[in-house]
Amino acid sequence: MREALVEARAALLTDDVPVGAVVLAPDGTLVGRGHNLREGTGDPTAHAEVLALRAAAAALGTWRLEGCTLAVTLEPCTMCAGALVLARVSRLVMGAWDPKAGACGSTLDVVRDRRLNHTVEVVPEVLAPECAAAHRAGLQGHRQRAAL
Hints:
Strand order of the largest sheet: 2-1-3-4-5
Radius of gyration: 14 Å
Order of helices and strands: HEEHHEHEEH
Structural class: alpha/beta
Low-confidence stretches: none
Number of strands: 5
Mean pLDDT: 94
Largest sheet: 5 strands, mixed
Distance between the termini: 33 Å
Number of helices: 5
C-alpha cells in the first residue's frame, strides 16, 4: 500500500485526483503500477487501477491476472471494479472507502457479486487513515486551484 501511496502523490503532478494502485504477482513481485491520469491525458478511463492492470498484463504477458493482488489507495469505482472481475484478479487490498462512488462495498459491491463469472477477495482499510488523508489533501488542493 505504501507504493500505491507513492503513486497517488504522482497524480498531483497532472492535477489529477490522488489515487494510486499497484499490482503484485502471485509471488509478491510488483508487476504493475499506476496513478490517476484522466486530467493529464484527457482519457476518462485513465484511472489508477486500469493503468496498473494494463501494466501488469503487459509484464506478465496475459490478461488473466489470476493469483494477483491489486492494492489501491481508494475504493475502486464501478468501471475499475468491473475491470478487476474481468481480469480475474484474486485479491483487492484497498485503503480508504469511497462512499460516493465506491463499488466494492460502499454504493455497490461489484467485485463480490456472485452473479458474475468471478469474485474478488476484498481486504479493506489497509493504511486507511494515510490513504484518506492523501485523498482529502489532494482534493482540497484541486478545489483551490479550480477556484483561481
